[in-house]
Every structure is written in C-alpha cells, then in structure tokens.
Design brief:
The protein has about 750 residues and is an alpha+beta fold. It has 19 helices and 29 strands.
Length: about 750
C-alpha cells in the first residue's frame, strides 16, 4: 500500500464531472458484489481476492499460497490450472457448482496475472444452448432488414425479449461525439427517450476506450456496495490491478449517480464497434436490480457483434453509392475545365454540378488572386480574406468547419451569412482554391435533460454532478450549418487532385507555348533586328538631310527598344526556368564603363541632364555586360519616372572590397505598398505610366537578379523629394556578400 504509483492512482479515483474524463476506471480497486474475484501469479499462488470472496467461495489460501484440496472443488481448481497453463491468456467461461451454489466462472489474463471471476448464477437461468438458439433466430430476423435504423429497431426488440430489460435503446454517436437514441423498446408505462440527444460528456473518452476493449458491461444492482480487492496490486508491475476485461469491475461513482438520477436499478451496455471506433451502443435499463446470466450476456454480445457487422455493411454500401454518384459529377467538373485557358472562368460558367457535389448553397474558385463566386456565396472580398487567412493559419490542403462564427470569429463579418466552409487548395504556388459554402441550418435539439454542467450538492459532496433531471430539454441551435460528412471530405480530396492535375497540365501547355515563343524571339528575330539597326546607321551616314537623319534615329531607337525587350524576356525565361543569368566575371574599369553608358544616354536623350560623380575604382572583377544593364536600366527609370527638367545623378565609389553605385532622381516618394513589389516581374504597378506606356515591369526584376547573382544588394530610398537606388557589389569574388 506504500507504492507511490498506487497512492497516486487512488487519489485520482476521487472524481467529479470536472475531471471524470481522466478517471482511471480500468483500475477501480473493487468489484460489484454479486460475484467474487481471485487473482493468481504465474506460479499459481494467490495474489489477491475480493473482500467478499470467502463468504461466496468458502475457504481460500492465504496470499502467496497455492490452491489445495481444501479450496473450491476439483473442477474449479482444474479450470484455474488450465487457465494458468494457457500462454495466450484467452478468456474462458464455464458453469461450475460449488458448495454455495452454481457459478459462471470466467478467467482471463491481465498483465501476466490470471483473474478468475465467480459470478453467482440465478437458480432460474436457462441453459446456454437456449440462449444461443434465441440469438441465432434473432440474427436471422435482423439480417433481413435493409437500413441501419430498421435493423437497430429490430435488434433492440430482440435483446429486450432475450434479457427482460424494461428499456433497450440503440444509441448512435454523432460527429461531435454527442449521442442520439435512434431505436427504442420500452415498457409501456415508461417515458420515451427515442429521438433524444445526450452530450459527449455523458460518456468520457476513457469509457469509450473500454467499450471498444470490452464490448459488454453489466451493472446488476446500481445500489451495490463495492467489494474491495485485497490487495489491489499486480506484483509483476507494481501497479494497481488492470480490470479492463473484467465482468465484475466496479463502476465509477459518477456513473452510478447518473443512473440513480435516471431512476435506473440495473443496466447493461453492448458496444457497436466499426473498425476500431465506437460507432454506437445498445443501452439496456431496468428499474430494479436485474442480474442477467453470463450465458444470456454472451448471446447478446454475439448479437451485437453481428449488428455491428450489418451496420458497417450498410454504411459502406451508402459510402460506395455516394462515391459512385460523386465520381460522375467529378468527371463532369474536370471535363468542364480541362484544356481551358482559364479554370476560374470555366468553372464559374456552369457551377451547378460543382455545388451539387457537396450539397452546398454557394461556391467560389480562386487562382492567382482571380476570384469568382456563385450561388449563395460571400463577396469576392470575403473569399479573398478567407484565402489570406488560410495561407497564414492552415498548412494543410483541406479545411472545413460547420460553425464558422465559433471556429474562426475573425472571418465571420467578411463571409456574411456563411456558417459552413469547405476549402481545398489545389495549386499552392498560385493560391489556387475551390470553396463550398453552407448557410445556417437552424436545429431544434431534444436533449435528455439540460446538458450544461452545474455545481450542486451530490452524494459525494459539493461538486459538478450529473444532471438530476432527464426531462426533455429543448434547445434551438443557431450559427451552424449541416456538418461536412466523411464521404464529402473524401470527394473533396479527390477533386483537389483532379484540379491540381488540370492546373499543372495547363501550366505545362503555357510553358511549352512560352518556350516556343522565346525560341522564336531568340533565334528568328534577333538577326533581322540587327540588320535593321545596321541599315539605319548606313542611312544616317550616307544621307545628310534632316528628314533622313530623323528617320534613321527613329528606326534605330525602335530597333534598340525591341532588342532590349527580347533580351529582357529571354532573361526572364532563364530566371523562371531556374537556369540563372550566367554571370561571367572579368576585369573591368568601372569608371570608364559608367562614363560610356552616361555618354550614350546623353547623346540619345539630350534633354535629360545626367550628373556623374564616379571615383577611380580601379580594375574590378564583374560581368561588365550585366552591370552595364543594371546602370542603363536605372538611368532609364529616371527618365520614365523622375520629374521632367530635373537632373538625375549617378555616383560610384569603392571602399575596400565593396563597390557602391547609386542612381537618383527628383520625384514623389514611392508608396510603401508599391515598394513591396518593386523588384517583381509583371507587376500591376507598372501599368498606367504615360511616359512608359508599354513597360512590362521586367527591368527592376532583372536588375535585382543581376545584383543577387553578383552576391550584392539593391535598395531604394525616398527622402526629401529624391528617389535613390543604391547597388552594393562585393569585388573580391563571386561568393562574397556585400558589407
């Protein structure tokens, strides 16, 4: 009794509703008094007994001693020795008659110890074969039923007939672990419980686990006085005796109080297990004590296992039919968007099948921030807010809720009347999402008593106690939609893969088209452009008239622009395909290079004043063509974005192993939101500039990549009406970063 683990577990057993979900009900330390329990060590010596064992079974050996001819009878001793020798520890049951009367003796092993339970058998109990025949006949009748509710209705009738209980209910667990009575057989004078719901807290998690491990449970007399196990200890583990598989295991005092509040004198429960999950229960109540013989219970257990199989078969059949129906709709949706340039527009053009797929009221599709909504859906702004929230808070590709206001209150205002949301992400890189929305489903729930916990004075003192009244308590549930069923989540997952394949296939088609275009630009257009530029220079040399000179300059300027655009697009292609810009370093005189670029700009644009302040930076290892591209692009930006008739300035200097080049112009500050996208390609901020109406926003992106390719940095600063781009490049080698 001094074992610390033992003492701690004993303390845990003093529970109320505030901690009953952690009560160690598998180690109660006592049994129900209508039977006796003995425990034996592997060597056959007695390790413990219930306090009533001597009264029921007669003389027994002392703890640590073995059975001999003075104890039980020869048949009982042989049964115990056979169970000890069984290395598998199978549960075994047999009918034995001792001096004190007939007993059902059930043996099993628990953590190396043999547990033998002697349960008194009523004198009027029928033979096992009678109950086996009754169970077989019941199975034949039940298996002819088609639906789950029909077979459970017949099952409760048959179990009531076999056992004699006053009330037998089939109880199904719902998505939130609350339970609902879906079939009932009752004595005529009892209040009906059919259709009532009971909160998840009525059956805490550890009780559900035991219902799976041990699928049948009898409390023969709710008012019993527990018989303690002496000692309540497994000598092999040093822990309290595990009674998970025991028939006589004592019951939580909270559950006894719960049954007493219902006016129940005896109860039995049978588990409906599907896979490894507790799907439901068959709960039996009697208004007075009622000992159901072990043979009857085994027949009922056989019946409940068969019912579990039939329920699973029905559910699987419904599941298969639902998947088959959804597969046809999925094929229609996929065909609708396949080989279409715009998935968003293609899906929203005919969205009715999309909504039927999930039995939803509204839907939306969003890809690369292009969003379309349809049906009874939130606004585009609301859907975009949902996309932002998912990107920030959900790492998975499927999200669902049927109570948006409770689960994500920050989104409730943006999503309006939608209470249910199911989202799938089919293209992570471009924020590709599909959404289904459900409106509020007002539900009137009939609870078996008020499910709210309240502090009251119970038999065990002031604490949270089980509700004392089980009169129907009606609640109107708002703010929830119908829940998303498991089958629907599977279908959504399958459609996500379908849309992902379509999106990637479309991207591959675009990629091939882009590669074809770039090949044309790179090989078929560059040579003609070069010839046009040479012809323009020849016109300028040979012809001395002003009109010829203007024409040649126009041709040369347009050709140069086309040449730059082709180069930019080819650079973009290299960058986005992962090839990089192929930086080729060689020794270059930076001051001379900058001077040549500035002189060319002054000649081409004489109206644009450029102030140059470049120190002698010496010979520097750089890719001169690429760095020239950086400087030319930054100077071009000063013409397109700077204030007219205000000079631009370029400054260059070297300090130790860092080269700094800055280009500045007069102009309004660049807004913060624009700065965030400044070095990205194809940005919408590039549109609408009258002085560069055909710009694609590629220049600064390529500049940034060139600088990064040199291991450098580029920054922009807006201060006192001056906008300055500053480039810092390490000059000691390709792997160094700027200081």
């Amino acid at each position: 009794m001094s074992n610390p683990y033992y003492q701690n577990e004993r303390r845990k057993r003093h529970v109320d509703l505030s901690n009953c979900d952690q009560e160690p009900i598998h180690i109660p330390g006592s049994i129900q008094a209508h039977g006796a329990l003995l425990t034996f060590a592997p060597d056959g010596t007695l390790a413990g007994r219930s306090s009533n064992a001597g009264d029921l079974l007669g003389p027994l050996p002392a703890t640590g001693e073995a059975l001999d001819q003075r104890h039980l009878n020869a048949e009982a001793r042989a049964a115990i020795h056979a169970a000890l020798d069984d290395r598998h520890g199978y549960i075994d049951a047999r009918l034995l008659t001792l001096a004190s009367g007939p007993f059902d003796v059930v043996t099993h092993k628990s953590e190396g110890m043999l547990i033998a339970e002697f349960e008194k058998r009523p004198s009027d109990a029928l033979a096992l074969d009678s109950f086996a025949l009754s169970a077989h006949q019941a199975i034949q009748r039940i298996q002819r039923q088609q639906g789950v509710e029909d077979l459970l209705t017949l099952a409760v009738d048959e179990i009531a007939r076999i056992t004699g209980f006053d009330r037998v209910m089939a109880y199904r667990f719902l998505h939130d672990d609350s339970g609902e009575v879906i079939a009932e057989h009752k004595r005529a004078d009892l209040e009906p419980f059919l259709g009532q719901r009971y909160p998840a807290s009525d059956i805490p998690a550890q009780a559900r686990r035991l219902y799976v491990i041990n699928p049948i449970r009898l409390i023969a007399d709710v008012g019993y006085q527990p018989a303690p196990i002496e000692p309540d200890l497994n000598p092999l583990t040093g822990r309290p005796l595990d009674l998970s598989h025991s028939n006589l295991r004592s019951v939580s005092p909270v559950h006894i109080e719960y049954l007493s509040n219902m006016g129940v004198g005896a109860s039995m429960s049978l588990s409906i297990v599907i896979g490894d999950r507790l799907w439901g229960l068959i709960a039996c109540h009697h208004m007075t004590p009622h000992l159901v013989p072990h043979a009857v219970r085994m027949s009922c257990q056989l019946l409940s296992q068969f019912v579990s199989t039939l329920v699973e078969r029905n559910i699987n059949g419904e599941h298969a039919r639902a998947l088959e129906h959804s597969a046809a709709l999925r094929r229609e949706i996929v065909a609708q968007v396949t080989d279409r340039e715009d998935i968003v527009l293609a899906l929203s053009a005919d969205y009715h099948g999309f909504l039927r797929l999930m039995s939803s009221h509204g839907g939306a599709i969003s890809l690369d921030r292009k969003t379309q909504t349809f049906g009874k859906a939130p606004s585009r702004e609301g859907v975009n807010a949902l996309v932002n929230w998912l990107n920030e808070n959900e790492s998975g590709d499927i999200f669902h809720t049927s109570a948006l206001g409770a689960d994500v209150p920050d989104l409730k205002a943006a999503l309006g009347e939608a209470c249910g949301v199911l989202a799938i992400r089919f293209y992570r890189e471009q924020n590709g999402y599909a959404f289904w929305f459900r409106s509020e489903q007002v539900e009137d729930v009939r609870w078996g008593g008020n499910p709210e916990k309240k502090y009251t004075i119970g038999p065990l003192g002031p604490r949270l106690t089980p509700r004392g009244s089980f009169a129907v308590w009606k609640e109107t549930v708002r703010g929830k939609s119908l829940p998303w069923e498991k089958t629907q989540l599977e279908v959504a997952s399958q459609l996500r893969l379908d849309l992902q394949e379509v999106a990637l296939s479309g991207e591959n088609m675009l990629k091939r088209a882009r590669e074809t275009l770039l090949a044309t630009l790179g090989h078929d257009l560059r040579d003609p452009l070069q010839a046009i530029m040479m012809a323009a220079r020849m016109i300028e040399v040979r012809e001395h008239s002003p009109s010829s000179s203007n024409l040649s300059k126009r041709i040369s300027s347009s050709s140069s622009r086309m040449h730059r655009l082709i180069s930019q697009v080819l650079d973009i292609s290299r960058l986005q395909s992962g090839l990089g810009l192929d930086i080729q370093r060689r020794s270059v005189d930076v001051r001379k290079m900058i001077g040549e670029i500035v002189n060319e700009a002054r000649m081409a644009y004489p109206d644009n004043e450029i102030i140059m302040e470049a120190e002698d930076c010496g010979e520097t290892e750089l890719d001169s063509d690429r760095v020239s591209q950086v400087i030319s692009n930054l100077l071009s930006n000063t013409r397109h974005h700077g204030e007219i008739n205000k000079p631009s300035t370029i400054i260059a200097f070297r300090r130790d192993d860092v080269l700094t080049i800055s280009v500045s112009n007069h102009g309004a500050p660049i807004p913060e939101q624009v700065r965030g996208n400044l070095f990205k390609p194809y940005k919408k901020e590039s549109l609408g500039n009258q002085r560069n109406s055909r710009g694609l926003g590629l220049g600064l992106y390529i500049v940034s990549e060139i600088v990064n390719g040199h291991g450098g940095r580029i920054a922009v600063d807006c201060e006192d009406g001056i906008i300055t781009f500053t480039v810092t490049l390490p000059v000691g080698g390709p792997g160094q970063a700027a200081a």
